[in-house]
Amino acid sequence: MDINETFSHEDFYNRTVKEMLPDEQPREKLMNYGASALSDAELLAILLRTGTKKLNVLETSKALLNHFGGLHQLVKREWKEIRIIPGIASVKAVTLEAAFELARRIQVAGLGEEIQFTSPDQVASFFGPKLRHLNHEEFYIAFLNNKKVMTGFHKISSGSSNATIVEPGEVFRQAVINKANSIVLIHNHPSGITKISAADKNLTTRIVESGKLLGIGVDDHVIIAGYEYVSFRDEELLK
After folding, report:
1. Is 114 or 193 the better-scoring residue by pLDDT?
2. Parent domain of 167
3. Which of 70, 94, 109, 113 is most exposed, with minimal Cβ within 10 Å?
């Protein structure tokens, strides 16, 4: 959506927040009815605090959501992208990116300090918040001890919207450095499609075969696709 079109929308009316009824003002509405009663735009307005001469803070929040296509798309953006919106300077853009990152970390924090990977659902719960909103592929490996507790993880590569380059040698260099008993492979599909590609299968086979030579097993390869995931082990693609 063109930025000029976003900010010339005739529905916007330059009324300050203070001129609104108490029940329309985001902060007051939250205090009276709780955060769950607020719309996405109202919650963003509280973080942004102020608007511009042309648009109040609530209208600025609505324009921000309209420009990026909703909250689901907005959370994928870095602060440098967000600040191109009129009324969103660097400080506000950084505040939003920090809030989005905190939300992702809160999801992971609920898993506890000792994270055990005995199922793909546990893997997706940990890595989903990190990967589901990205617009490019990233490939991670998780290091496990003999009790399947994760001792650490490492990002192997970052690529384009539909591919990333992964070398099995680098995967196991990191696994050896981190004294992994076994590893789990994780990457994302920015398309949101869970289908396992031929390239995914070929890469996984190469990594599994390399691991056999070093005595380091590959417990699973989990692909995050939005809020869904697919597991090589569940699909019986790991021998």
Report:
1. 193
2. 114-231
3. 113
